[in-house]
Amino acid sequence: MYRVNIYPEARADLFKLEAYLTQSFGHRIANQKIKSLLDQLDGLSYFPRLGKRVPQFVEMESANLFTLQAGKNTVLYHVNDDQAVISIYAVIDIRSELIRAKAFFFRERD
C-alpha cells in the first residue's frame, strides 16, 4: 500500500473547489463531492496507476506522472515506487477554471 501525500498547492485547490461547490450547490452537496474526491485520492494508495500517464513525460525522468479524472476534476499526481508514496500536485476543477478563463478573456477584451 502506498502513502498519499497531498501537496499544499493541491490542498489549496481542494479548498477553492469546496468554496465553489458551496457557493453553487450548498454545503451538503459540496461536502458530498469533496468526500467522494478524497475517497478517490485515498483509493490511489491501493491502485497507484489508476490514472493515465502524462504522455509528454513518459520518456523523461518523470515517467511516473499521472492524471486521474475524478468527476469534473483532474488530479495530477506522481508515483514514487521506491518510497511507496503518491504525491498529489494539483486538483484542477474544470468548472471553476473555465469560469476563471472566461473572466480573464473578457477582462482582456475590455
From TrEMBL:
InterPro entries associated with the record: RelE/ParE_toxin, RelE/ParE_toxin_dom_sf
One Pfam assignment: ParE_toxin
Highest taxon in the source lineage: Bacteria
Keyword field: Toxin-antitoxin system
Name listed for the protein in its UniProt record: Type II toxin-antitoxin system RelE/ParE family toxin
Annotated source species: Lacticaseibacillus manihotivorans DSM 13343 = JCM 12514
